[in-house]
């Protein structure tokens, strides 16, 4: 079977004596994916944080991305869901997306990490995609508004999560049947595309009357 576009070579030291996993690096494609998605999420978080500060200074401030009653970043920022942990959600993004960029840059420079590190990244991206899914539900069905910068962060997190999962499946950190692994490698683009497509369809159908009016 031909290698996928995101395939990576097995790095030196993939397993140590006794069959335990040793340090594992990554190919350029996956490393760049982490850097690009991290930058996209960081940009979105940074813009939202700045707008939040402006909103705190001036309650009448209208963010540039508040375009209409549906696409209204201001409504999102003023909601209780925008501060789940007691501070603006995007401040968490400034830290986490920055960390992902650092990991990606390290991989581009030839870094290799052990199994516990990769599983830690898996857990982090799983939390991220789970949190984004909750925010998507809140945005669509509770707040009844959409933030374009939030959508960028959602998309970046989803792509980051699925390619991290692929990396960990490929190296055996997440055990799956051989057939599943080969399918994920061959159609590596399909799962994130479907995931993003479902969100797009939910957004389209949620405000269908508005989009078509």
UniProtKB/TrEMBL annotation:
Residue ranges of domain Vitamin K epoxide reductase in the record: 27-168
Compartments where found: Membrane
Topological relation to the membrane, as annotated: Multi-pass membrane protein
GO cellular component terms listed in the entry, alphabetical order: membrane
Region span, Disordered: 1-21
UniProt entry keywords in alphabetical sequence: Disulfide bond, Membrane, Oxidoreductase, Quinone, Redox-active center, Transmembrane, Transmembrane helix
SMART domains in the record: VKc
Spans traversing the lipid bilayer: 30-49, 91-109, 116-137, 143-166, 187-208
Superkingdom as given in the UniProt entry: Bacteria
GO MF, one example: quinone binding
Protein name (database record): Vitamin K epoxide reductase domain-containing protein
Organism: Streptomyces marincola
Lineage of origin: Bacteria, Bacillati, Actinomycetota, Actinomycetes, Kitasatosporales
């Amino acid at each position: 079977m031909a290698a996928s576009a995101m395939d990576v070579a097995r790095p030196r030291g993939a397993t140590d004596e006794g069959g335990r996993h040793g340090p594992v690096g990554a190919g350029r494609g996956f490393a760049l994916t982490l850097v690009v998605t991290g930058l996209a999420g960081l940009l979105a978080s940074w813009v939202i944080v700045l707008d939040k500060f402006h909103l705190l200074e001036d309650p009448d401030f209208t963010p540039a991305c508040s375009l209409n009653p549906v696409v209204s970043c201001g409504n999102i920022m003023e909601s209780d869901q925008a501060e789940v942990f007691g501070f603006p959600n995007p401040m968490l993004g400034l830290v986490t997306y920055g960390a992902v960029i650092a990991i990606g840059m390290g991989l581009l420079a030839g870094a290799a990490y052990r199994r516990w590190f990769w599983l830690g990244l898996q857990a982090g991206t799983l939390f991220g995609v789970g949190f984004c899914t909750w925010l998507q539900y809140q945005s669509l069905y509770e707040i009844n508004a959409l933030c374009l910068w939030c959508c960028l962060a959602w998309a970046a997190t989803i792509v980051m999560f699925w390619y991290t999962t692929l990396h960990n499946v490929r190296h055996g950190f997440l055990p799956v049947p051989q057939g599943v692994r080969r399918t994920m490698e061959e159609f590596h683009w399909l799962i994130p595309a479907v995931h993003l497509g479902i969100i797009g369809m939910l957004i389209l159908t949620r405000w269908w009357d508005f989009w078509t009016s």
